[in-house]
Amino acid sequence: MYPFASLPENLIAFGTVLRHDYGFRVGLRQIHDALRALEIVTIADQRAVRNLWRPILSSTADEATLFDRAFDEFFLQRHGVRLERTVDRGAGDAPAGPHARRGAKRERESTIIDSAIESSLPDRAVDIDDIGDAEDEQEGILRASYSPIAGEAPPPEIGPADPAWQDAALAFVRRVQTALSRRWKPAPRGSRFDLRRTLRSSLHTGGEPLVPRWKARPRLRPRFVMILDGSRSMSPYASAALRSAVAIAAATRNVEAFAFSTELQRITPAIRRAASGRFTRLPHLERAWGGGTGIGTCLRDFLHRYGDRLLSRDAVMIIVSDGLDVGHPDVLRHAMTELRRRSAAVIWLNPLIETLGYEPSSIGMRTAKPSITTLAWVGDPGGLYRLARTARVS
Amino acid sequence: MMDAAAIRERFRSRGFLVDDPFATALQLILALDKPLLIEGPAGVGKTESAKVLSEVLETRLIRLQCYEGLDALTALYEWNYPRQMLRIRMTESEDAPLAEREAQIFGEAFLLKRPLLEAITQDQAPVLLIDEVDRADEAFEAFLLEVLAEWQVTIPELGTIRARHKPHVILTSNRTRELSDALRRRCLFFWLPYPTLQEEIAILHARIPGVSEKLAVQIGRAMQVFRAMPLQKAPGVAESLDWAMALMSLHRDHLDGVALEQTIGCVLKVREDHELLDARRQELDQVLDGSRPLDPGGHSLSTDFGFGSVSRPGS
C-alpha cells in the first residue's frame, strides 16, 4: 500500500505533496502529530489511517474534501497521476513507458523527501510553515498533478502585488464605507452612556464616577467578495484581474475570491498566499479556468454555496468579467438581483469598457446592468484609484 | 483511553450517532491533547457533540459562547467591582494599612471566573466548548491562540494561574467569517455535513423512540429534497427532530398534504423559502409518494448545500 518502506518517509512525502500539489497548510507540527497519532490505530488498516490523518492534515472544508483524493493518489494511485517536471531538464532525459513513469515518481518523491528532511534539520532554523517555499526555490523538483483540462489552459502563477498596486488597493479599501454595525461598542466619543464601564473606572477614583464612558456604533468593516471570470475570452485580462485581487487581499484580510469559467471555485487561500508575499499557482481549477463562460449559473452556484455566509450589508461584490455569457438570461438576472439585494454594492469590472465606443449591449451585460452599482475597469493601479473615487456603496 | 468504536457506542447510547471519521476525530482530542475545530452548516449537531462528549467523559462542560464584541476579560475573569466598592466603603473607617485593604479587595473572593479561567482551574479536565468562534472578533481570536497554546492566565493582582489539567477543547464555527490560518493550524479539523438519508432516519429513531418508520422515512426524504433546493435557510437535523415531534403531537403517523401545510413552519423559516417550496411542491410530493426516487449517489444525499459541495469524508 505505501510507496516507501519507512513510515516517516511516507508521511513526509505525503505532507509535501499535500502542500505543493493541493495547497494544504501542512507544517512539521502536523506531520509530527500525524506520526504520533498512528499509535492509536492499526497501521495496516488504510481506512483507519485515512480517518486519523484527515482531521490532522486538513484545516478547511475544501481541504477535507480534497484529502481523500490526495490520499488515494499518493497511496493507492487510483487516478493515474500524471508526472511532469516543473523545471524542464531536457526532453531526452526521461525514458518512455510505464516503468519509466514509476521511476520518475520515485525520483520525484525522493527529491521531495530529501529536501523536506534536509529543511527540517534543527540547525537549518527553518520556519516550519515555510518549508514549501524553500523547496520552490530549488531547481529540478518534479511534481505530480491531475486535471482533466490541465494541458489546455493552465492557470497563471500569481505573486505579491508591487507597491503601486498595494497603495492603490489601500486607498480603495479605505474609501469604501459600509453601514453602521448594529452593536454598541465602547468608544472615546459616542452617543450612548456606558454605565458599566463608568462604574468600573470609578474604582480608580474611590468609587466616585468622575469620568463618564461612552458607547458608539462602529462602522462595519467591508468584506470584499471578488468573482473572477477565468474563461478564454478573459485570458488577456486575467493577469490584471488577479493582480487587483492580490492587492486588495494585501490591503485587508476581509477578502474572499472565486474563479469561474463553467464552474465556480474558491481561490481565496492562493490569493492570500500571494498577498503575503509568496509566489503561488492557482491549484486544481479544472472547469473554473480556461473554458467557456457560464456567468449566470456560476453566480447562482455562488449564491447557493456561499451566499449565506458571505453576503450581508457589509459585503462589496466585485465581479470581473467581460459579460459574454452563454447561459439563459433569466438565470443571470435572478442571480444578479439576489446579489444586489443581499450586498452593499455590486461592482462590475469589464475590460471591454476601455474599448472606444463600447456599449454594454451584449445579452449578459444588458441583463446584469440594472443590478450593477458601479461599472468600471481596473487594468492598472490608476484604475483602482479611479474606482476608489467613483464606487457607489450603499 | 477510549478507542473510536467505544466513543461511537457511548455516543449512540446517548442518542447521538457518530460515524467512524467523526469518532476518530473525537478520539484524537484525547490522544493528542489538541483542540478540535468543527465546521458545518447550522443544526447538524456541532454544539451537541461537545455536550455529549462531556457526558461520555463524565466531566463538566464549560461553554464560551462567542459573539461580536466579546473581549478577553469577559471570557477570562472580571473583578466583582460592586462588591469591591462595598468593601471599600465598609472599611473606610478602619485603620488597616492601604496595602492590606488592597490585598483584601483583589483576593479570590472578589474574582468572577469566566469560562476560560473556570476551565483551567478544574480538578478534572473539563470539556471546553468555544461555540461559534467565527462570531468573535479577530482580536479575540488572537487572544484565544495564546490561551490555547499556553494554558495559563496572568492576573496582575494575583499572579499566573496555570492549568491543572488541560481541558478537552471543541471549537465550532458556522463560517460566517474565515478563521485565521494560525488558529486552524493549532486545531484538528472536522467538517460535519448534513446526514445522509439513512443516517437521518436512524437519528430520528434514536432521538424520538416513538416515531413510526413511515414518518421517519418521509421526513428523511423530505429533508433531502429541501437541502437540494436553493433555500436561504436550509433545515438542519434540529428542524428534522422538531418536525417529527410536531407531527407526533398532532397524532400523525405519516406525512400528507394537510400535515405538511400545518407543520411546514417547523422546517422553513424564511418567507422566500415558503414561496420557493410552493413553486416546487410537485418535486417534494413526487419524492414523498415514492413516484420519483432520490438520486442515490447525487448531491442530495451526500452533499452539504448550505456551505459548499463537500462530500461526506470516507463515503
For the record, the count of structural domains of chain B works out to: 2
User: How much strand of chain A?
Assistant: 5-15%
Strand content of chain B: 5-15%
Helical element count of chain B?
A: 16
Oligomer: heterodimer
Q: C-alpha Rg of chain B, in Å?
A: 24 Å
Low-confidence region ranges of chain B: 296-315
List the helices and strands and how they pair.
The complex is a heterodimer of chains A (394) and B (315).
Chain A (H helix, E strand, L loop, with lengths): L6 H16 L5 H10 L8 H12 L3 H16 L5 E4 L12 H22 L11 H6 L5 E4 L11 E2 L4 H13 L9 E3 L4 E2 L1 H7 L12 E3 L6 E7 L8 H14 L3 E6 L3 E3 L1 H8 L4 E2 L13 H16 L4 E6 L8 H13 L3 E5 L13 H6 L5 E3 L4 H10 L4
Helix pairs in contact in A: 1-4, 1-5, 2-3, 3-4, 7-9, 7-14, 9-10, 11-12
Chain B lengths: L3 H10 L6 H13 L3 E4 L6 H11 L4 E5 L6 H5 E3 L1 H10 L7 H8 L5 E3 L1 H6 L6 E5 L6 H13 L1 E4 L3 E4 L5 E6 L7 H6 L1 E4 L5 H11 L5 H16 L8 H13 L7 H7 L7 H9 L1 H8 L10 H4 L13
Parallel strand pairs in B: 1-8, 1-9, 2-5, 5-8
Antiparallel strand pairs in B: 3-4, 6-7
Helix pairs in contact in B: 1-2, 10-11, 10-12, 11-15
Explain this structure to me?
The complex is a heterodimer of chains A (about 400) and B (about 325). Chain A is of the alpha/beta class. Chain A has three domains: about 5-145, no CATH class; about 185-220, no CATH class; about 225-390, Rossmann fold, CATH 3.40.50.410. Helices cover about 45% and strands about 15% of the residues of chain A. In chain A, a hairpin with a 3-residue loop joins β8 and β9 (about 265). With about 325 residues, chain B is α/β, with parallel strands linked by helices. Chain B has two domains: about 5-80 and about 105-190, P-loop containing nucleotide triphosphate hydrolases (Rossmann fold, 3-Layer(aba) Sandwich); about 195-300, no CATH class. In chain B, about 50% of the residues lie in helices and about 10% in strands. Chain B is built from 16 helices and nine strands. In chain B, a hairpin with a 3-residue loop joins β6 (about 150-155) and β7. Chain B starts with a helix and ends in a 13-residue tail after the last helix. The model of chain B is unreliable at about 295-315 (pLDDT under 50). At the A-B interface, α2, α3, α4 and α11 of A face α2, β1, α5, α9 and β9 of B.
